[in-house]
Amino acid sequence: xxxxxxxxxxxxxxxxxxxxxxxxxxxxxxATLLASGTFELRNTPILRDVNTMAVLLRxxxxxxxxxxxxxxxxxxxxxxxxxxxxHVKKMRASVYxxxxxxxxxxxxxxxxxxxxxxxxxxxxxxIEAMRRxxxxxxxxxxxxxxxxxxLIGARIHFDVSSxxxxxxxxxxAVLARGTTLIENAAIEPEITQLAxxxxxxxxxxxxxxxxxxxxxxxxxxxxxxxxxxxDRIEAGTFLVAAALCGGTATLTHVxxxxxxxxxxxxxxxxxxxxxxxxxxxxxxxxxITSVDVTAHIYPGFPTDMQAxxxxxxxxxxGTSVVTDSIYFDRFKHIPEMIRxxxxxxVKDNAAIIxxxxxxxxxxxxxxxxxxxxxxILAGLVAEGTTEVLRVYHLDRGYEAIxxxxxxxxxxIQRVAGEEF
Length: 420
Ligand code: EPZ
Prior knowledge:
420 residues; alpha/beta; four-stranded mixed sheet; elongated; binds ligand EPZ
């Protein structure tokens, strides 16, 4: 398994191009199950999770071909309606095939995702939504068995705002008979893009971008093409890196509006932020001000950015509190941060961070995607050498992160090799 070797202390200067959004691709790819033919998904990031989804879809008979950042999917040969455990255990987003399979084929066998490095992360809201639409769902042997003659439009009210359950409900409802109303729908940009993608396939959807989505089912959908939106979490990670390391960095191919919560907090921390239509530039403050953050649903501060924010606050002047109102135990990175010299205490779903003068390099272990990102950030500013082990976690969601950081002046190398 590869590791990153980082020598801390370099300020970041220059320009970096942000890739397409992982969490958009992971919804757009299974949505192609809803129609037969060839789809073109442009600006698709080169990531392990995208490859995992392509392998899952290939096991269902979908041919895929990648040319650079354009992914072409041919769904005319679908011959299997199962998402087996060996795929789903690698990536929870595999559950996104559930809605499309039931809607188009009236049947699905999808493994329950099981736990992940943090949290149980249930799929009860996905299952309840399918049942509301008339699917017959049975849970046994660790699998979801679903059958439906024809889905019937229904009112679906989510108790909890869920990105995945909203995506699955939309993908099921577009081919249901009649009208579906989804209330308390997630409004993350990736869900908005999924809705627009479905409309471009011939679906009838109202309320796109709001938490009240109305869908008129149609008989059939057709293939289409799409430019995947930029990855707001990759962008946020690089903005925090620049604020942390010192210097000035410009991110291109972004949608600044999607970054509003993060750039607002960076300004509170003393950074200077400017933006135009498709770029954001951040200049680091001479002293980082401690700023409290609570992760909320969009457009609040993203939970996928709370670990990265903790890295910034670990060397801020003063004490700050980072709270996660979505996942109550997404703090697996904290013990590793403490090994780098951070002064952090976790209480319930909050990390209390007392800023220290400096972090000191050490060997640290990645546990999950965004935890790994926060360890990279800490290593970039720690004195001496930091080794971040098991970077396959990072490769799930960051395209060539070490190359992009090196372009900005960071001293970071990928060292391939045996079990570390
Ligand atoms: C999506 O996961 C993202 N993944 C996650 O990003 C992100 O952290 C999360 O949304 C929250 O923004 C993808 O889009 C592929 P949820 P998802 O359903 O859809 C609870 C990353 O780092 N819940 O919005 O699984 C759940 O436990 C990944 O890129 C239920 O209770 O998240 C959580 O507390 C990590 N029952 C809350 O809802 C359900 O059936 C929000 O989860 C589903 C969710």
